[in-house]
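Re-run with default settings, no changes from the original entry. Doing this only to confirm the output is reproducible before filing.
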Amino acid sequence: MARTARGGSSTRAPGLALWLALAALVVVADQLAKTLVVYSFQLGDARPLTSWFALVRAHNPGAAFSFLAGASGWQRWFFAGLGLAASGFIVWMIRSHPTQKLFCFAVSMIMGGALGNVIDRLLHGHVIDFLQLRFDVLAPIFRGGYFPAFNLADSAITLGAVCLILDEILRVRRAR
């Protein structure tokens, strides 16, 4: 079996349409969940489901961990533009590495998450977060042990980042 530049096999690769459909699925799931939260919760509401997990409604005008949340509003357009530009770059990367399934999965998840949050920024001026975790071990870092609220888009971005790291580790190991 032939090898590609990134170290994977050259077996038949899924097409760009599959990876775009995966990203679209992330966007749809994220937006549906956020719509349910908006219609079921008032801003600041929380419904604990376990001692460590709750559904909440929080608005984040900034980026991860509320970075730039207190800025004067320019961050809305900056982060929306950044998400759109990253998505364009991701499409180019998928087209450049079509046989790298883990890589394409990873960047598709990142693109879907980025676009899910871009939609929020454009429609609402902020991102809607609704998943809340609490662990005592986090108390020294986060007040009360509450990890900042997040959403499905953020989860997809995190999964994509983990998969990118795994893809690189596997690529380096194959190169040895």
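The longest strand covers residues 53-60. The chain has a mean pLDDT of 87.
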